[in-house]
Structures are given as structure tokens and as C-alpha cells.
Amino acid sequence: MLEARGIVKRFGGLVAVNQVDFNVQEGMIASIIGPNGAGKTTFFNVLTGVCRPEAGSLRFGGEELVGRRPDQITALGMCRTFQNIRLFGNMTVLENVLVGMHTRLDVRYVDALLRTSLFHDAERAALKRGGELLAFVGLRDVANEVARNLPYGAMRRLEIARALASSPRLLLLDEPTAGMNPAESQALMGFLRRVREELKLTVVLIEHNMRVVMSISDRITVLDYGEKISEGPPEHVQSDPRVVEAYLGRQARAH
Q1: Of 13, 39, 145, 161, which sits 20 to 30 A from 87 (CA to CA)?
Q2: Are residues 175 and 254 in the same domain?
Q3: How many Å apart are CA 56 and CA 20, to the nearest integer?
């Protein structure tokens, strides 16, 4: 589904991502982990068109992504959430989800201006779909609440619902459990399994919660100082000395 080869991204003299190969098969849950500053979010930014790499190729469903804008990549079926929640705080919960549908709405400016039947049909369909997505993430009862008034965990779920509203085939989640307590993290694990099984989506996540990563991942990729140092199933990555050293230092590796 997704294939990255030799991705390089520099910021001045800093090489944030260095010759990284990465691929995702349809239907899997893949995780990208690594210490702070390892280049994980920068790699996500490259995948989604926020940053353009200096070298390498990137293909999604056979389509070359390098040089495409983020909205064009979303239209192809890849959508993401952010490490820092980026909701529209003054809009309602439902309105936030409707924004995510923009790519899929087949309504012209003239239809909206003249309030044609096409516009009203699209609006009814969008409202229905928005309600379904809010029910899926457990937020239907607060559809008309202003987004900034939600509890933190609900904001996280709303951001995922907004991403799902773009009808993606591949969902990228940047630290979805950040700031969550253990119970909320456990609930999110079950939710991600539902996303794969019920919506038939492929998921890639950046995550620091190792309990979450080891419990739900089919494959884990480890970055350190912008380079891939390990990749494989959870049991392989857990026992890789290079991973232990990256997280805990050389003395821990020797021990």
C-alpha cells in the first residue's frame, strides 16, 4: 500500500531523516517508535506532503507522492492526526467532522451559493455520515458541543473522527495516546482494532506508550537520530540490543 525508499530530509545541517526505507501492507497496524528527536514526526510530515524530501521515492497505491500537496495526498486516501491536537476549538464537534469531509464533497461553489438541490442532498448526506462517525468514536451525544469544551481524551477521539471523515484507506496517527491515562490508553487500543476490523483501514502510528505498541502492532520500525535501526514484529524489536541502547544507553545494552 505504502512504499518509501531512501527518504532523506534535512533542515540546514541537520539530517532529520536519513535513508529510511519503510513499507506498509494493506490491513496491518504498523508502529514507528524511537527516542525523542529520532525523526518520527518529520517522517510523517514527509509521508503526508507537509515536508518535501531531499532524496528518495514515496509511493501510495502505486501513485508517486513526492511533490504533491497535503490536500492532494488526502484525496488519494491517506490522512493523519497530529501530535498536538489541532481541532477548530470554536466550532462544534459535528462541524469539525464535517470539515474532514471537504475532500469528498462533490459540490461546486455555485451550488452552495444558489442552495441548489445538489447542495442540499450533499449536506444531508454529510450530516448523516458525520453522526455515524461520532457514534463510532462515542461522541454522538456531544455533537453540538463546542470542541474546546471537550475533555482531553474526547478531543483525541474527535481528531480521529475528523480524519476518518475524509474516507481514508491509510490512517496515520501521531502519538494518539499522548496525555491519556492508562484506562484511556487501553480503550484506544480496542478502538484501533475496531478501526481495522470494522472499517477495513490500515493504520500507522507513532507512539511512546510501549504497552500500546507491543499489544497492537503487527510490525514495529525503530528510528534513532533519523536512521532506521530495527524493524520487525514486537518480540524481535523488544530483544534487539540496538533498540535497548537507543532507549536506555550503552550500559543497559551491555547488561
Answers
A1: 39
A2: yes
A3: 9
